[in-house]
């Protein structure tokens, strides 16, 4: 396949989650998890599939430096830095806000540093609106003789979304009768690729509050990769797990994280996968997902983000129970 590179071993495994299924009132065989958190690069996660295509595109264009944008706890930025390290390319990450106080950077930033990324703190801006600042960084890099290549927010170009057309096809081979594939919706490329591969009816996206028009974004990307019209209204998207906003800890999300962890030993993060799981729980409650329908939870990674989320860290540590002798 022209342009594509390999950054991990495939396929990722699928596993049943019988104890979580029972906790939600489903049959033991109803609920499965696809482990796109288990990959051979940089701690893994859904961004690896997209980077196989977007970094492939960068190499074809002769780039020697990857530039991308995101929130400071961006898993996409971390994995771009890891891909850069693996391929011997430079990486520059453009983040909103300002440099964290000495000693206060956590989570993904720890790994960004280890992977050798350089960082530009762009001040006041939404993560999704950093493209202008990133273009400026590219201009500057060219002036210095580098050959930069800009990968968009979340790696969600039509090129990046092809990684999840493949992910969806892989899943269809593993679990052909899946009626619901539940996935966190951030920048949209993951859901878009899945919709292109599996159809609008089977994919349930749980909006995480990272973008303002999730349905329009996913429909555009899905249409571009599937080469057919995809209507925003035809998409299944839940918007009930954003809570007070992308960076906040939504109470049902923490509850869903605890349930998945306590029943299956599966760790989720408060920004993406915890929201997706809370959306799955809500869908079971309101009848969107019913007993006897095979449901796949796509684990998209993101664990470092848990350690970069002060409130989730505090609440989780506070839940440690003392052992008391009887
Ligand atoms: C980025 C991300 C998502 C969302 O994927 P998009 O393609 O941006 O919609 C989900 N989970 C995790 C852990 C992520 O890092």
Automatic annotation (TrEMBL):
Residues 5-301 form the Tryptophan synthase beta chain-like PALP domain. Its cofactor is pyridoxal 5'-phosphate. One of its GO terms (biological process) is alpha-amino acid metabolic process. SUPFAM superfamilies: Tryptophan synthase beta subunit-like PLP-dependent enzymes (SSF53686). The modification N6-(pyridoxal phosphate)lysine is found at residue 47. InterPro entries: ACCD_DCysDesulf (IPR027278), TrpB-like_PALP (IPR001926), TrpB-like_PALP_sf (IPR036052). The keyword Protease does not apply. GO terms for molecular function: D-cysteine desulfhydrase activity. Keywords: Pyridoxal phosphate. The active site is at residue 74. The keyword Methyltransferase does not apply. Belongs to the ACC deaminase/D-cysteine desulfhydrase family. This is D-cysteine desulfhydrase. The lineage of its organism: Bacteria, Bacillati, Actinomycetota, Actinomycetes, Kitasatosporales.
């Amino acid at each position: 396949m022209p342009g594509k590179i390999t950054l991990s071993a495939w396929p990722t495994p699928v596993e049943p989650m019988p104890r979580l299924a029972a906790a939600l009132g489903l049959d033991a065989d109803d609920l499965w998890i696809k482990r796109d958190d288990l990959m051979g690069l940089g701690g893994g996660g859904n961004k690896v599939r997209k980077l196989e295509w977007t970094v492939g595109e960068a190499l074809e264009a002769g780039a020697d430096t990857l530039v991308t944008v995101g929130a400071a706890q961006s898993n996409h930025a971390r994995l771009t830095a890891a891909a850069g390290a693996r391929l011997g390319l430079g990486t520059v990450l453009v983040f909103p806000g300002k440099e964290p106080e000495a000693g206060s950077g956590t989570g993904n930033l720890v790994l960004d540093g280890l992977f050798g990324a350089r960082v530009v703190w762009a001040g006041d801006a939404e993560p999704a609106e950093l493209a202008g600042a990133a273009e400026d960084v590219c201009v500057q890099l060219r002036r210095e003789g580098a050959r930069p290549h800009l990968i968009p927010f979340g790696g969600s170009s039509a090129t990046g979304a092809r990684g999840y057309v493949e992910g969806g096809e892989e899943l269809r081979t593993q679990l052909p009768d899946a009626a619901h594939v539940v996935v966190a919706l951030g920048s949209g490329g993951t859901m878009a690729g899945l919709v292109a591969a599996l159809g609008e009816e089977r994919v349930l996206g749980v909006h995480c509050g990272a973008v303002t028009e999730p349905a329009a974004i996913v429909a555009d990307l899905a249409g571009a990769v599937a080469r057919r019209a995809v209507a925003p209204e035809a998409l299944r998207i839940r918007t009930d797990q954003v809570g007070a906003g992308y960076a906040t800890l939504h109470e049902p999300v923490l509850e869903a994280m605890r349930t998945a962890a306590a029943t299956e030993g599966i760790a989720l993060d408060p920004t993406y996968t915890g929201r997706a799981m809370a959306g799955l729980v809500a869908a079971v409650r309101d009848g969107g997902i019913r007993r006897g329908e095979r449901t796949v939870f796509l684990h998209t990674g993101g664990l470092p983000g848990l350690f970069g989320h002060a409130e989730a860290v505090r609440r989780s540590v506070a839940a440690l129970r003392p052992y008391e002798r009887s």
